[in-house]
Each structure stands twice: as structure tokens, then as C-alpha cells.
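Researcher: Please predict.
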Amino acid sequence: MDSLNQEACTASNIADNHPDELSHYPVIHHQPIHWGEMDAFNHLNNVVYYRYAESARIGYLQALGMFDGSMVTVLAQSSCQYLRPVTYPDTLLLGVRCQRLGRTSIVMEYSYYSTAQQAVVATAEAVVVRLDSSAKDKLPWTTEERERLLALEAKASHTPEF
């Protein structure tokens, strides 16, 4: 990572306050943009947004204590809406939260905030399904897991749909 991008990432990590646009997201993932992630038009490649969402999703599950290797999940659906082009150098702040908590699934919602543009540049959604250890059958979230998720969301004054 070059020094300009590293400085942007460090400054973003030091700040306790996040932009108002991310105030209702309990987990904020800091993601510096790398030069090699640009496409032929010098914009962040569209596939990279999905990698960033994956990293943010893992951070969210870690915040819940649910990413310890014992849980099996599968990405069932994902989409991304590109609102503004992103270019190097920049650091994105990805807000991630539970939009809807199902019996065996969770709909994750993402908001990509550009620190260079001071604006939301993309939004995304993903459906994650929980499976048993054989990865063949759906497995319901436990009462304890639901309670942890709701407590995390409440810290950001957000309540998922059911």
C-alpha cells in the first residue's frame, strides 16, 4: 500500500465518529482502494465491490462471535448498485447490518462510503443461509445467536425486519 492510501486508512481508523450516512450500521469495515483494483477506465472494478462486501460480512459475523470456523454459511444471492465511480486513491467505509433476520437466513445490507468523495458511492445486499455441518440442510439460528444479533444492531439504533 502506498503512503497516501495508508495515511487515509489510518486517519479513518483513528476517527471515532463515522459519517451520518453510516450512523445506523453497527459494523464499519475500513477498506483502502489499491491501484491494481482499477479497471480499464480507472474506476474500481465492479467485482471488487463483492470482495469488499465479503470482508465486511466476515467482520460482522466476527463482531457477533459467529465466525470461529464452526458455522457453515452459503451466499445465496448478492447484488450491488453502483451510484458513483470510485478511483484510486480512496478509502471506503462499508457499513454492514442485518436488514432481515429469517429462520435460517440473514439479509445483509451494505453502504459503501467514499472518504475522498464524502458520499455513499454504492449500496449492496446479500442473502446468507446457515447450513448444518454437512452443508446439506438449513439450520435455524439459535435463540442466543438471535439475541446477540439484535443487541449488536441495537447499538446502532437499528432493528432488523423478521
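Model: The helical segments are 3-14, 46-63, 143-154.
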